[in-house]
Amino acid sequence: MLVCSLGDLLLDVVVRPDRGLVTGSDVSARTRVTVGGQAANVAAWVAALGGRARFVGKRADDEGSRVAVSALERGGVEVVGPVVGGDSGIVVSLVAADGERTMASFRGVADELSVDEIDVEWFVCDHLHISGYALAGEPMRAAARRASAAARDRGAQVSVDLAATTVVEAVGMPELRNLLDRLGPDVVFCNGDEDEAIGGRLDGPVWIVKRGARGATVDGVRHSAESVDDVVDTTGAGDAFAAGWIIGGIELALHAAALCVTQVGAFPAAPVETRPLQG
Length: 279
Fold this sequence. Notes:
Radius of gyration: 18 Å
CATH architecture: 3-Layer(aba) Sandwich
CATH topology: UDP-N-acetylmuramoyl-L-alanine:D-glutamate ligase
Number of helices: 8
Order of helices and strands: EEEHEEHEEEEEHEHHEHEEEHH
Structural class: alpha/beta
Shape: globular
Strand order of the largest sheet: 6-4-1-10-11-12-13-14-15
């Protein structure tokens, strides 16, 4: 099974302070620079779980981008898309003692992907996953619509992750619902806050609400999370979940999310041993 993901490839700076931050002063922290971006995370987890993955996105011709691309390719992900002058995106994730994270994002050139930079052959795949950040504004929103149409023309399924409540707020709930209706995804992923922000389930797609330690609901049916003894960092758990769902359904989704929260950062630390996947 070949999964394409459309969105951004960024550097993640993960910061775990040893105590609460002190305004105007300094506290010790464990800090790690890794690779992230919602679409890139999904592609990396698809590959780690045994699927084939292709990441599609616009990236800068700078050292940060080269580091990120190298990490994806080492993980078995094919990377395509235009390379231009400019800056790579960077996300700073502050991780609390319970593993919950708060992020501040600079998306760099990723949001500038336009329709005329799309090659429809990139979307010859079995499944296209679109990051909600790709729907936040133009020109990338039009590029996402073109990518979705190209994938559907070739018989692929399409999923969308709403990404963040800030995306829903920036686009506007009615407009985003209309946009999803026009895209017609087979699956929509969101968390509880995003589900509330968009006004609940749309008719048509499978509606999956990721609920962290409480598992997930699929069209309203609750599925319990796997037990995790030590939650280190929740960054990327939703992306791991999406990758698992796409290639293996709810059990693999919950398993991938559980693995993700036991490590620092959103990228899989190593390939995951699971049943062989066909295709």
